[in-house]
Amino acid sequence: MNVAERVVRDGVVGDGAEERRERPPVGAFARPDVVPYIARWSSERCPPSMVAAGDRGIRYTDELPHDRDARGILWKRIGLSPGKGRPEFGNVHFFRQRRAMRKLLCQICGGPADRTADGTLWLVGEDADDRDAWATDLVTGHPPLCVPCAVTSVRACPHLRKQYVALRVRTFELGGVQGALYRLYGRTPVAYSADGVPFHSWRIHWVLAAQLLMSLAEFTMVDLAEEHAQYMRRKATAGPERAA
Ligand SMILES: [Zn+2]
After folding, report:
1. Which of 36, 146, 185, 221 has the largest count of CB atoms under 10 Å?
2. How confident is the model over 173-196, as pLDDT tens digits?
3. 97 CA distance to ligand 1 centroid (A)?
4. What's the domain range around 172?
């Protein structure tokens, strides 16, 4: 177990089921005037789709090439119309979360996440559902953040300070997906659970993916206030034309 994971378990986040239930889901870092990039909008519905058994896992009965990613993982379908309807702060848009993870975009503003010599900035809670499958890395479904959005998020929700830990992550890689797990009843695949599945697991063919998960391997816990102070100094040094 690495340092941050131990700290997360030992009290900063807490290890109780009650605290886990109270922790807002990813995408919930919200002020009324800020809609996170990865939040879903009420107009973005999941179209009806039928899942069937294929040669070595699940498939859509009317599957199209873009239903799978480059690894061949089947993804939940969802409409794409950000800004239309009401923001659903607690619900994550599958494709924007995936894009933010792949491109290391800030989960709140969709701009580049903050990266310094110390690493990329993450706020993490206790995310891994199946720790045995993930060895010792910390695994998260939360995309990284830029410094201003991280500070704003935590300031907006004081309880987040107790439930999340700020990390500078030096080494990380995409590790798997979170989604609905299926198994066969006769010849019919039926969803029976939601879980994180590593890419190397045989279950990857039996999951309908909803989020990409990142494995955080080497990282340091940091103080967000100090990160913000350093960010402001960097901005000042960069000059007024680049400080906007
Ligand atoms: Zn941001």
Report:
1. 36
2. 999 999 999 999 999 999 999 999
3. 14
4. 3-50+77-179+197-202+214-242
